[in-house]
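Hi,

Apologies if this is the wrong queue. I'm a grad student, and the batch job for Leucine rich repeat containing 28 from Sciurus vulgaris produced an output file that my downstream script rejects. I'm not sure whether the problem is my script or the file. Here is the sequence I used:
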Amino acid sequence: MASELCKTISVARLEKHKNLFLNYRNLHHFPLELLKDEGLQYLERLYMKRNSLTTLPENLAQKLPNLVELYLHSNNIVVVPEAIGSLVKLQYLDLSDNALEIVCPEIGRLRALRHLRLANNQLQFLPPEVGDLKELQTLDISTNRLLTLPERLHLCLSLQYLTVDRNRLWYVPRHLCQLPSLNELSMAGNRLAFLPLDLGRSRELQYVYVDNNIHLKGLPSYLYNKVIGCSGCGAPIQVSEVKLLSFSSGQLTVFLPAEVKAIGTENDHVLPLQELAMRSLYHAHHRFLKGGRQSALWLTAAPPSVCRLLTCC
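Support response: The file is valid. Your script probably expects a header line. Output copied below for reference.
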């Protein structure tokens, strides 16, 4: 096996390969052959998935200076070492399914990094330097032990896909709403009790998944026209106790979507749900009333509390 590995690496060096596949090799240590002499100067993509690596060499960037993609999925790596920060051309880093407990601050030096996958590890926090990754588009930190998100995550101005499923988050920092490019946010299976009221205000954010957050009983009104996943939210209630909520004005009665009962009941005083109900009532009337004069007449006749909410729609 060792001779075969050495031959594979030697051929890659001689023929100046850009891709090297070392998956499923039962490697416990980083191959010395990769680090011999000047290393593999032309290598751009290194695949070392499903081995038994526990660490990375300190001179990795010196021997593989042009590395663009590094796949280390399913190993036993505990710490992302400082040396990782010297891979200045790295765009894709996959460290999913390892035993990671620490990600070093030097990861913030990977200024070209676009995709970072750290799912299925044992991380309790991420360094604030993650916010220095200005080109980062995808961040997957699902199935860890995170209690909070990185402090400067909102500075990742290119971030489009953020997956934080199955962690221990109690809240979502409001500054997360400032991410200008975020298109998909998944926070299923956490301990969220509320969401920032500004969440969903950005036009770019179209998909939000908060399934299986049993303490979550309300959604921000900005999410009402987005694609939402919220099954398993709210405290469970008996079917016999379920009552479809509605709001009435005059002869018109508007029932809320059936999904609302899964995340709250009529006894829950949750402002976002109330606002969502008022928006539904407003749009229902809008279909029957034509022209600004009639709408103004209806608003004049409506209760003051309704008028205050509808004028904000």
